[in-house]
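Explain this fold:

***
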Amino acid sequence: MRKMRIWMLLVAVAAPLGLTGCVPWLNFYSMGIATPIPMPPWVTERMEDKYCWKNDTRTPVMPPIREGFPPPVCEDPPDNARILRAMPRVTRGVPYFYEEFRDDIDIRKELIVDRVDPVRFMPLLGPVQLHHCHWRCTVYYTETVESGYPFPFRCVKPRVEVIYLDLDHPHLAGACTPEAQQQQTLDITH
């Protein structure tokens, strides 16, 4: 009889707690799909790199180089945003304890290599000519390191970072007649 009273008391006390959500281990997923999941702060940065800047890692396939015309040249330097994304990341700091900033950014771009290789076979593409475009990008900036605790300080240093970018891309080389080249270009672009 005593055991029965204890079990009834436990059920009478535990049942309302389990139904109200006061005990988190009983109703962990009580919010369904809206249940918050803890996430580290750098996950959003990695997702942004993956989905917003996916063309940074893709290589365009260009139309064939036509005979009798001058070879293509690397006229488009890399844009400043792409160069800044290629730089090492700023150290993640804690506000007022350690913060790091980059100010007064100046970027100089220099073409190092501009050449076209002879025709060769590449899997999934067929016969192509690889056009090499290598850029040296020198980034001048002012690095500022600040702290407010345990004692305030601010350190400002001029910095230089050199980034090498390879913007190589293939040109198709399978077509010989102008009609075949035009058809090949249409197949690529559509």
Observations:
- Residues 54 and 164 are 19 Å apart (CA to CA).
- The chain has two domains: 1-31, 77-190.
